[in-house]
Here is the input.
Amino acid sequence: MRRSLMIGRTNAGKTLFCIRFAQNLGITKLVWHVERTDGSIERRQISLAEVESVLSASRVHHTREMQSLTLSVPRGKSDRQLLLTDTAGLDEGIHPDVSIRQGMAQTLQALVDADAILHVVDAAALGKSIRPEHLDSGSASFDKEIWSSLDKQLAQYGLEHPGYVMLANKMDLPQGVTGYQTLCREYPKHRIIPVSALRGTGFREVRLHVWKFA
Here is the structure.
C-alpha cells in the first residue's frame, strides 16, 4: 500500500490534520498502526474524540514515532486506499532525548520511500514573524527561527519529488493569510495548499493530491 507522509517541524499541526482528514472521509473509529523505532508494530484503536485529546497535545515532540491510518480516498466512482502517516516533528540540532532523535531519524528514513509528501508548515507563525515594514516593501522574508534551514531543505527536496506538496496550515489564525502569501512568493515553483486542520478547510485539494499517488 502506498504511503502519504506528513512531515514538518514540531507543533505544525500534523497529527490534528490526520485526525480531521480521516473525519472528513467519514471515519468514526481510528485504527493507528504505530511503527516503533525498534521495528515493532502496535495496533491502537480509539475513537476520534479520544484520539484528538490524546494525540493533539500542545507540548513539543508529543509524537515520537510513526503512526499510520489506512484510508479509503474516493474520487468519482473509484476509491483508492493509502497509508496516511503521521511522523515525529523535526527540529534543528541534536536533541538531548534519545527517543526523540530516533523518531526524527525514522521520519527522515521514511521520507525517502514515501509516495506522497505532505510538508506541513505553520503559516500563522510564519506570518507573525514578518515585520510590517517588510510587507509594505514587498521584500518580506521569514524569521530564521520560524522558517529554518530544515524547512528550506524539505522544500528543495520537494522540487525533485512529484508527490510533494506544501500545506500552509493554521489558516484560521489571523496571520495565516500573510504567511501563505509570502510562501507563494518565496516558492513560486511549489504547489502550496492553504489548509486549516482545525476547521477542515482545504481538504478537498489535499484529497485530490493524495489520490493521484495512492
